[in-house]
Each structure stands twice: as structure tokens, then as C-alpha cells.
# Entry
Amino acid sequence: MNTATGDQNKSSTQDDSAAADLPLGTTKQWARMHKWLRRGIIVCLVGLVLEGSFTLPFLAIWYGYPTLSFHDICSELMKVRYNNESLECQHPYPFPGPPLGGAPEGAGVNTAKDQWGIQPVPQYPRLGFRELVRIHDQRIARQKAAEHNTRVPHP
Amino acid sequence: MNLPLRRSGNGKTATLPTAAPVPRDGPIPVEDQIEQSRLAQRRADKWLIAGTILMGACAPGIFGLPMFLYGLTLLRRASKAGLSVRPVMVTLIGYLVILDAGLNLQGWILDMIGNHTLIYRVLYTAIGNVMDGGYFWHYNQLWIGGAGAPGEKSWEWACILVVFPMRIAASIAFLQMKRWGHQWLIVTCWFGVVIWVGYVMNMTEYADIRFGGIVFPVLGWWVFDIMYITPFLAIPYLHTVNREIFSD
# Structure
């Protein structure tokens, strides 16, 4: 009897000691779950910071910076989006611009390739790493060649 | 701030006047303990707030993280010294919810009103081309500008005007250990579950627009956006934490 009481006391002391180590607000029953939640929260916090810090540099490099300027990237993406080589990003855009006033940049452009229906399917090509640089250079070369051909009189 | 009193380093809520910690060189009055706790909490919060502001501003986030971690260290040291400071989990959840809501607010507000600036035309259409075609497909063709994916603007209005401001307000009160902060964080984190389910289903319904012709379809979006899963981490804690540590 005394031994049993002694064991109970010992167990109770251990419980108290374990509870004493728990953070405020965490009960023993949920201690393990809180520990894993804390780890998940730290992972998300660090993940958000890394994403916030490195997304723009990553995208800029992927789409051709510094070979292409931001203005070039903007224009190249617009040409791909609307399947129209004549489009250029207008910068600076007339103030105030949408939604406060004026038409949006893509207003009236109807050259985008889509398979139209209740669930439209875009038809633009998938862009690879720095593929915009190649697309940009090829177009410039093509335009220069065309310009050259028009200048040289045909023999 | 309604900081709960505690015994020296043992993590239990205590009642006055026995709450005063008993340092080796003798007892100190409970008023001094409360004042020291308040100062320690304030000092840590300065670092935590500065860090969160930088982290919420995206690009300088990498400088904000060490400041935030230093604030956490200060809080931990104060706790070990027996001062009555906010539990680490409450701190982490409160600030992460603010960061999550702040980043979302920033992104969506700019898609709404800054959609013709050069930096955001590049950033949004590029990110759209990488992992979410909703931000590339017919971008800047709606009268309002910005993303043209079906339903996207409705999510933006609902979250900008209702959910995220409420979550930030609730988080601030939660960090102040107020009962209404705890209660409203539960409410607004459940809003977050609604947003997650609704948003993912919307993307699934219009999967061709969202994931057709882009660089990293589906998996790319999940890898990037899984970091915003904050409500699913906060809700289990909020429902199992001892609510007595929050006061009116």
C-alpha cells in the first residue's frame, strides 16, 4: 500500500516536472502537437522570407535580365501572351491608368491564341530558361535583315 | 499587454502575490517583476516588429529574418530568466499570420491598383508564366487591369477588404494576449480555410488557364504557395491552447 502510494507520488512528481517544462498555454496532452506545429510555422516563416527575397531576382534572370532590360522583358512577355510581335510595353503608362481611369494596356488586342469555350485553353508556347533572349535576338536579326533587304536594290 | 504572470521559469500561471520570481539573491517585489517583464517584452517586440516589416516587404526580407530571430532569442532569454513574457508559439503564430496576410495583401492590392507599373507588369506576368497562368493569360485586359483569370478579382476584393485586415487586427490583439484576439484569430483562420478550399477549387475548375503553357505547372504553384498554409498550422494550436492565458 505504502509502495503504491510512493509510486503514485513519484509519478505525480514526474508529471509536475514534465508540466513545468512545457511552454505557457501548452498542456501535456497537446505538447507533441504544439512542438510539430512550431516546427511547421518556422519552416513556413523562413520559406516566405526566402520566397519574398529571391523570387524577383530568380524571375529576372530566368526571363533574360541583365541581357534584356525590365522593359524588354515586359514587352517580350506581352508579345508571347498576345502572339503579336508589334506590341510593346508602354512605360511610363499614362497616369492614373486602370482601375482609376483609362483603358488597360491589353484593351482591344485580339490576337491572343486561345481555344475558346466555357473553359478556354491558352495556346502560347511554354518558355524555357532565358528563352526570351533568344526570341528577342532572333526577332531583331529578322527585322534587321528585312530592313537590309529593302534598302539593297534588286540587281 | 496582458502578459500572464508565471513562476520563475516553471511555465505555470501564478497568482499574486506569490507570482514574484525568487532569484538567488533574494525576492524582488512583484511590481518590479512585472515592470521588468514589460520592458523585456517591449525590447523583444521592437526587433520582432522591425523584422516582420522587412520580411513583409519581400525583397528586404532576408535582412528582416535575422532581426526577427534575434527578437525571438531575447524573448526566450527573458522567459528563462523567469520573466512573464509571451509564449514562443503565440509570438510565432501572431507574427506569421501578420506576415502571411501582409504579403497576400501587398500582392493583391498591387495587382488591383499597381497593375500598369513596369516592375509589377514584369513580376506578375513572369510569376504567372512560371507557375500560375491566371497572372499571365490576358493580363491587363480587364477594365480594372491585372489578372484576368475567372474569379480571381472576386477573391482579391474579398480578401483585401475583409479577411486579411481582420486577420491582422486579430493577430495584433492575439500578440497582446487579449481574449478577443484569440477568438477572432480562430474565426479569421477559418476564413483562411475557406479561401484555401475555394481558391484551389477555382484553380482546378479553370486548370487550363492556370496551368496551360506555363513553366512549372501545378507543382510549381504548390511549392510556392504551400508556405501560405498558416491557418492550418494556427487552428490546431488555437483550439488546444490553454485559453486562460488570454485575458479581457
User: Anything to note?
Assistant: The two ends of chain B are 10 Å apart (CA to CA).
